[in-house]
Amino acid sequence: MLAVFKKELKSYFLSPIGYIAIGTFLVVFSLIFYLTTISIGSYDMGNLYFNTARYGLLIIIPLISMRMFAEERKTGTEQLLLTSPRSIVGIVLGKFLAAATLVLIILAFSLVYFIILCFFSKPNLVPTLVAIFGFLLMAMAAISAGMFISSITENQIVAAILTIVLVFLPELTGMFPSINLMNSYQKFPAGLISATEVVSLLAYMVMFILFTIIIMQRRKSVK
Prior knowledge:
Layout: H1 2-14, H2 16-38, H3 46-55, H4 57-65, H5 70-75, H6 78-82, H7 88-118, H8 125-151, H9 156-173, H10 195-221
Helix pairs in contact: 1-2, 1-7, 2-3, 2-4, 2-7, 3-8, 4-8, 4-9, 7-8, 7-10, 8-9, 8-10
């Protein structure tokens, strides 16, 4: 798992994907920071993370997850991966954790904005960390779904579009509220950790990781 993790994490920064993801986050975060914080004189960063999760992850998650398995299949390296001595569980978790680490790196940049606010006021660090924690959980849940979709297609564009439809369309349209991830990110921005929301996001994440393992295990069995 560790070897896959290192390879995947390195690949994000040996290609434009990692830098585009970071750049996209900073653009969206900066714009929302101005609209929800600077322009109205607010020092509450919860709303900032909530809106960035709603609009920023729509771009970032498909970008990160679309290549996870689809690229392996398209380039023909999937067969080498599946016939290697590494376990399917290790491969899937390695790729998942690499993508989650990229999101964690991206979130680290957001602390710069907290430092900026410290020059003008005394924002509370604990609610900000809770909002970041919830943001990371939601991103990981979305990544797991995107990874599953990437495992069933070799076209990265199709994987990205299906990820948007499956993960983010319920939020954009108001349809299927029971599978709307944003419904599980309501209390974190207020600085509250809800056991219900944590369990919901973890269950969503584990479900799609297991689905991905099953798909890849079946593909390995027919090699």
